[in-house]
């Protein structure tokens, strides 16, 4: 019997990221944990060191970091076509699910009940993030200065320091240390680059103003999908008065209970503002900048690593990125592991992931189903 034909890289990308987009609950750190498990451990697309470099570089970009990591992974396998396929397959399931919730909200005045799904899926995601932090940490914190930097970044993240500041300062200090080693007695100055949010004109909600607002958000929001929520409130509620706080809260909930990137909240808000056309335009506008920025990361990261100073900067950024993931795991764990059932789901998932290497997708789906069943009893 002839062996099955090998799968083309593009088909592999489509299958992987479509499945991930349909099942990746838990936010950016959980998404990156799933990608590390699949792309590095199971599929051997790249080394863990290369994966860390891509994660660190994407964390420095504005926009949805986990979506950009997905795009860069696609680029590494099949160039710009792979990047486009990976991004589309990861984004579309979340956007379509969020669009369905927006339609239900507008038609019926509330969202379908989804708390049980999150009740069971999130403990599994805590275990996935914990495993990723352990795997990536062994590579990123391989030297004691990087381990100390990681601990300092972890403390800074817990203290509320913005993620972009943690990443840049850690990378800058690592670069300075490398500079000192290579040129004793030299000094290095740093210039702070202000990151601001430009204002826009208020008025009636037209498609063009809507497009500009969400395009701007895709360019200026640093940190993660969760940082987006503060920008949305500042722009859409406080400045433009396009939506109310209760409406924004519902949109945020829709982005949380659907798999994939939290930035899909834009789809919900676009639908509220201008129906189907608004949903499509808001989604395209907020994600479009990431396609170009992720392509540059995919093309340049390998070359940057060859320059010692830039490589040192990436080492510092990688240590900070792992620390940020650890802080997210801790905060998500505090919010998620609230009773015996959630603790049991998380603790049972760890050996299944580590020892038996069960596919995380099935664990997430199993946890979601259990959560729906258990929600009636707790």
Structure overview:
There is one protein chain. With 378 residues, the protein is mainly alpha-helical. It has one domain. The chain is 76% helix and 0% strand. The chain has helices at 9-23, 28-42, 48-59, 65-108, 115-140, 144-158, 163-182, 207-220, 225-239, 245-257, 265-304, 308-336, 340-354, 360-374. Helix 3 (48-59) crosses helix 11 (265-304) and helix 3 (48-59) packs across helix 12 (308-336).
Q: Helices, strands, pairings?
A:
Layout: H1 9-23, H2 28-42, H3 48-59, H4 65-108, H5 115-140, H6 144-158, H7 163-182, H8 207-220, H9 225-239, H10 245-257, H11 265-304, H12 308-336, H13 340-354, H14 360-374
Helix pairs in contact: 1-4, 2-4, 2-5, 3-4, 3-11, 3-12, 4-11, 5-12, 5-13, 5-14, 6-7, 6-12, 7-12, 8-11, 10-11, 13-14
Structural class: mainly alpha
Give, in order, the helices and strands.
HHHHHHHHHHHHHH
Question: What is the number of helical segments per DSSP (H or I, 4+ residues)?
Answer: 14
Instruction: Catalogue the unreliable spans.
Output: 185-203
How many discrete structural domains?
A: 1
Largest sheet: none
Overall 3D shape: globular
Kindly report how far apart the N and C termini lie: 53 Å
Strand share of the residues? under 5%
Mean pLDDT: 81
User: Roughly what percent helix?
Assistant: over 70%
Cα gyration radius (Å): 21 Å
How many beta-strand runs?
0
